[in-house]
Design goal:
It contains five helices and seven strands. With about 230 residues, it is α/β, with parallel strands linked by helices.
Amino acid sequence: MHGKRPILAGLLAILAVGVAVALYPRRSSPPPASAASASMQGAQPPDSMPRDTTSGRSNPLASGDVGPASLSQVLTDARVPPERLFLDAAAVRGDMANAILHSDRFDAFMTRVERESDHEALSRAQRYRAAMADWLTRTAPQYAIERLACTRAACLVEARAPAPDTELLHQALEAAATATQQRYFALVSVARPHATLPGTATHRLLFTTDPKWNAIAMPPQTAVAPPRP
């Protein structure tokens, strides 16, 4: 029995590596929902705001970047382009996408994205929503797409469902991408209890539509020193 322990440990290590790689697909591979996705149920970050020391007023650009702690106050600020909040040079910022999807101001952010969308983004949103709704009507009618809005490089979805499982919505997105020939490349999704309907879950998705952003980047974890004996 002792001789099997190294083998078992090796298999577990291989499985762990496989899960990590699934978040970062190759650029040449097609974008199935499971290939570049992350399901994050983290708590909403605390609310704070960098200050402009010259005027004493809150300035979302004072620190040179927007972080999760200041996000809730800049989601509707026209001085910060929506995509800057969750895209870096080559990947989706996973911590920021997670914070946006969990934010109590998500609906206001969706309204802003809809208002600032150009014609191409509006058309893409209409195609995705129609295709996802059609698939869900035929496959899982208990699921409903409540909102879908797009920027030039990404889309956001809010849906209602009887369960917190996001798998059916991922399948609906994949079916919509096939039906509309509109590929997606990275996906972040969260589920939380519906604000007004007991026993119902709210699902929020953020996915990219530009192959430049086909990975999800998470900030490095800060190491914690062990307590001294």
